């Protein structure tokens, strides 16, 4: 369906005159399905992720929010300076991500700003940022699907397809806290936003109307972003070829001479001159070992790990990782509220599905090919990581956002009949995923460590200037050093930077200077 202006001439006799004879424009409300779809992109992920809003800080998050917030909240331009000057240090550790670090540190500052402005503890601010990134990913996935399949010139000029309309429910069902390395738990803002960037670049490529120097710079920027962003270039190549040849039915000559193909060529021209020397340099510096384990490449175990990564987007596998092997607990208030919210969203969506266009055979074939290519790219990236090769199938990692999108697109492209049944299954899956997230949150909140980190966050958010407050904070510092003495200096530096900016005092007055 496309948005058209239809001119209707009134039936009139020879003596009819004046305003009654003026043509009346009738504009179908093609934007209404889009508005409803974007609301689902916002609400469906939030319903599933809401149980994680108070998940405690872990790993580098325990320090980075306070450290980067204290350093850059009042001087944000220093982010770029620090990202450039720290390149040699991070190259020695085995990665090259200057632009990605600007985004990562900016998100830390945003989370810290919630503490400064509203008194919100850092864990909640961090989860809000990651939830927004999940929403951004869902919007990017919808635009990505429509950019590939829609044949109209203006992307938003007609109604979205049924597959795009159901995509928010499918993606929401895959937003599971599938282990401590999952993007819903660790660095969610960074890697979900990067996943959205990958999809956005691919959508831009297949809809490009001009290609110039800017695209070369974009390609170079992707090589300087992070490893996940590398996938944008090969994905854009696959998307442009499949859309031109399969969806539009162009011959290879026209496909390869079109603006989208030139766009992809310029991406490669900008990407390779940065990517190749950087990876060679990292290989040389890390040949003897000792580099950051999250960046280590292990070719030997990649083939064995790839099948597991190709299916790790399946919600039942992720539920097991979130709950330690048990089925999520559904007889609770949180799953009931999630079911009600998702059912309401699904009911409103179902009423409009009959008016939306379904995919034809060519569109379906292209979408299946793109989904498989994206699954292979994301799975290969993860399988090459030494950190991932020891994880069981279903475990989350940096590729989880893209893998969830790819798996969701694959299911929606292949399921073409009995759409209400599919929608009902997605609502049930989303409810179970919300229950799994609640179980993960409950399990992660037990023990002394989460309690300790949460108490530290509360003391920073509600800083008590009295001697009793200082005594509490120093007691928390002593408790932290008792369980993690190696990070004592990092603890003092990060927390002092945060509290000096917020309240003009050190976190603990007894800590060494």
What labels would you give this structure?
513 residues; mainly alpha; 2 domains; two-stranded antiparallel sheet; 2 strands; globular; disordered N terminus
Number of domains: 2
Alpha carbon gap, first and last residue:
68 Å
What's the helix count? 21
Rg over CA atoms, rounded to whole Å, is 25 Å
Class of secondary structure makeup: mainly alpha
Largest sheet: 2 strands, antiparallel
Report the β-strand fraction as a percent range.
under 5%
Residue windows where pLDDT falls under 50 for at least 5 positions: 1-29
Main β-sheet, spatial strand arrangement: 1-2
Basic shape? globular
User: Can you count the beta strands?
Assistant: 2
Could you tell me the mean pLDDT? 89
- The percentage helix is 55-70%
Could you give the order of the helices and strands? EEHHHHHHHHHHHHHHHHHHHHH
Characterization of this structure:
This protein is mainly α and 513 residues long. It has two domains: 31-444, no CATH class; 463-503, no CATH class. Helix content is 66%, strand content 1%. The longest helix is centred in the first third of the chain and has 28 residues, at 122-149.
Give a brief outline of the structure.
It is built from 21 helices and two strands. The chain is mainly alpha-helical. The protein has two domains: 31-444, no CATH class; 463-503, no CATH class.
Record the SSE blueprint:
Blueprint: E1 6-8, E2 24-26, H1 31-49, H2 61-72, H3 78-85, H4 87-93, H5 98-118, H6 122-149, H7 162-173, H8 188-207, H9 213-223, H10 232-247, H11 252-257, H12 259-285, H13 302-310, H14 315-323, H15 333-353, H16 361-383, H17 400-414, H18 419-444, H19 448-461, H20 467-483, H21 488-503
Antiparallel strand pairs: 1-2
Helix pairs in contact: 1-6, 1-7, 1-15, 1-18, 2-5, 2-21, 3-5, 5-6, 6-7, 6-8, 7-15, 7-17, 7-18, 8-10, 9-12, 10-12, 10-16, 13-16, 14-18, 15-18, 16-17, 19-20
């Amino acid at each position: 369906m496309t948005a058209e202006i239809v001119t209707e001439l009134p039936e009139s006799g020879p003596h009819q005159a004046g305003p009654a004879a003026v043509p009346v424009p009738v504009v179908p409300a093609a934007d209404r399905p889009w508005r409803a779809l974007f609301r689902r992109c916002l609400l469906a992920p939030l319903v599933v992720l809401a149980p994680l809003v108070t998940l405690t800080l872990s790993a580098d998050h325990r320090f980075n929010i306070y450290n980067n917030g204290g350093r850059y909240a009042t001087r944000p331009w220093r982010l770029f300076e620090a990202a450039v000057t720290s390149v040699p240090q991070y190259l020695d550790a085995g990665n090259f991500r200057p632009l990605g670090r600007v985004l990562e540190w900016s998100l830390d500052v945003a989370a810290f700003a919630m503490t400064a402005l509203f008194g919100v503890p850092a864990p909640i601010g961090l989860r809000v940022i990651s939830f927004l990134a999940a929403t951004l990913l869902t919007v990017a996935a919808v635009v990505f699907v429509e950019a590939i399949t829609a044949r109209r010139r203006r992307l938003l000029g007609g109604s979205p397809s049924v597959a795009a309309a159901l995509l928010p429910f499918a993606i929401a069902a895959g937003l599971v806290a599938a282990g401590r390395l999952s993007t819903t738990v660790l660095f969610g803002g960074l890697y979900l936003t990067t996943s959205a960037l990958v999809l956005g670049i691919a959508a831009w490529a297949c809809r490009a109307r001009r290609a110039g120097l800017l695209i070369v710079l974009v390609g170079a920027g992707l090589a300087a972003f992070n490893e996940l962003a590398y996938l944008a270039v090969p994905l854009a190549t696959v998307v442009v070829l499949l859309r031109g040849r399969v969806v539009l039915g162009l011959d290879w000559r026209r496909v390869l001479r079109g603006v989208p193909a030139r766009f992809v060529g310029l991406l490669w021209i900008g990407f390779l001159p940065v990517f190749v020397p950087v990876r060679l340099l990292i290989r040389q510096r890390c040949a003897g070992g000792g580099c950051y384990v999250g960046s280590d490449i292990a070719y030997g175990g990649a083939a064995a790990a790839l099948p597991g990564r190709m299916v790790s987007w399946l919600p039942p596998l992720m539920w097991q990782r979130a709950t330690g092997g048990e089925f999520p607990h559904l007889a609770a208030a949180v799953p009931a509220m999630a079911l009600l919210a998702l059912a309401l969203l699904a009911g409103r969506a179902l009423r409009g599905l009959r008016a939306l266009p379904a995919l034809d055979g060519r569109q379906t074939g292209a979408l299946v090919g793109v989904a498989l290519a994206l699954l292979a790219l994301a799975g290969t990236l993860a399988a090459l990581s030494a950190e991932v090769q020891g994880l069981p199938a279903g475990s989350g990692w940096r590729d989880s956002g893209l893998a969830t999108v790819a798996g969701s697109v694959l299911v929606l492209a292949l399921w073409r009949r009995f759409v209400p049944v599919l929608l009902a299954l997605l609502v049930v899956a989303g409810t179970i995923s919300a229950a799994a997230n609640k179980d993960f949150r409950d399990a992660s909140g037990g023990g002394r460590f989460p309690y300790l980190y949460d108490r530290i966050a509360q003391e920073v958010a509600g800083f008590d200037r009295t001697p009793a407050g200082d005594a509490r904070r120093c007691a928390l510092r002593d408790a932290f050093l008792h369980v993690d003495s190696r990070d004592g200096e990092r603890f003092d530096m990060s927390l002092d930077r945060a509290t000096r900016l917020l309240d003009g005092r050190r976190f603990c007055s007894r800590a060494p200077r």
